[in-house]
Design goal:
heterodimer, A: mainly beta, six-stranded mixed beta sheet, five-stranded antiparallel beta sheet, globular, B: mainly beta, seven-stranded mixed beta sheet, four-stranded antiparallel beta sheet, 50% strand
Amino acid sequence: KNEVEQSPQNLTAQEGEFITINCSYSVGISALHWLQQHPGGGIVSLFMLSSGKKKHGRLIATINIQEKHSSLHITASHPRDSAVYICAVRRMNYGGSQGNLIFGKGTKLSVKP
Amino acid sequence: EPEVTQTPSHQVTQMGQEVILRCVPISNHLYFYWYRQILGQKVEFLVSFYNNEISEKSEIFDDQFSVERPDGSNFTLKIRSTKLEDSAMYFCASSGIGEKLFFGSGTQLSVL
């Protein structure tokens, strides 16, 4: 049983489109992370959320704790946004570090010019 | 922006050999982590390290694995006797208190 589920698994978009990637989880959490994994394998942290909404440039992340759901939105998508986007959660009542995470399988995004 | 540095980028070893993967976390960070990603699978947490000791570890992190911070800058993952199934990309990461994670670019370990 996957404790973190992402949808869709794969997503192809045209440049300029608005993109939404969804993450649902089944455990109580203290934080949710959105990560970007580049084609070369490197991982970049985009957001860490515990409530509400965060925005950085063209990226917006939201979380609904009651519904155990988070979304990552990309506005005005660009081919350079092509990557795997990974949702990861930290279970509630674990210790002080942020890094003991349960990862989703990722959403592979391809943005065509 | 500060970076987490991992070396080597690729490591090939024979089954049964010991390997040490090295990481230089961001200098003012307090928490250090190792993760692995087997090809085609999701990322998995291995261990977190704080105040010179392991603070959390997963079931994957068995007696074959150990971590060390031998000096003020390096953070290492040692696999004592590698198995074929240890072949994976290993990521190091670091963070401050309550802050997002910063990942290294990974070490691809191939066990033959």
